[in-house]
Structure formats: C-alpha cells, structure tokens
Prior knowledge:
By secondary structure, this protein is mainly beta. 0% of the residues lie in helices and 54% in strands. It is built from no helices and eleven strands. The strands form two sheets. Strands 2, 4, 5, 6, 9, 10 and 11 form a seven-stranded mixed sheet that branches. The chain has a four-stranded antiparallel sheet with strand order 1-3-8-7, with no helix packed on it. β5 and β6 form a beta hairpin.
Amino acid sequence: EVQLVESGGGLVQAGGSLRLSCAASGFTFDDYTIAWFRQVPGKEREGVSYISTREGTTDYADSVKGRFTISSDNAKNIVYLQMNNLRPEDTAVYYCWAASIWGQGIQVTVSS
C-alpha cells in the first residue's frame, strides 16, 4: 500500500523551530517530486516547498524562503521540512504529497 505519514508537528512560540517528517511506504521515492503543502480553514491548500529527490532541486514559496529548508533521505524514504523562525501566520495543517497521494496532514500551531 502506498502511504505517506507526516510527523513532527505541534505547538511552538513565534521565532521557534519545528522539523516535519514525511515517511513514504509502498514505493521508493528516489525519482519523485515530493512536496509540502499547508492549509488553514477557509482557504485553499497552498504549496510550501518541493524537492526532486533524484536531482535535489528545491523550491519554496516566497513566504517561507530563508526560513524553511526541505531535504530528503532517499535511503530512509523520508523527506524533511525544517521550519525556523516560525511566525503565527505559519499556523496550518501541513500535508505531504508524492506519487499523486496525500498524507493525512499534521497540525502546526505558532503562538504569538
């Protein structure tokens, strides 16, 4: 079964850091694009960052550039999203996407 499972979310104060993980099972993602999205109630899901696991190419939404870093450990089938200098507006449910499937989402809450 192809599955993505996010972990590492939680509550943090503004200026703090969290590292999200997306663990894949059922496929080896050494030649995929893996992406992180986020969504707040009443708004559309927005792209945060992506990585091409073969080439290592990355990109970020303007709102997170310089604060978030995406990386992959292809041997472990895990993609990470290191989030530093978090802001209250980063509060959202974060989703991992790959191979046309979504993870279940994980809550990130940043208090002011």
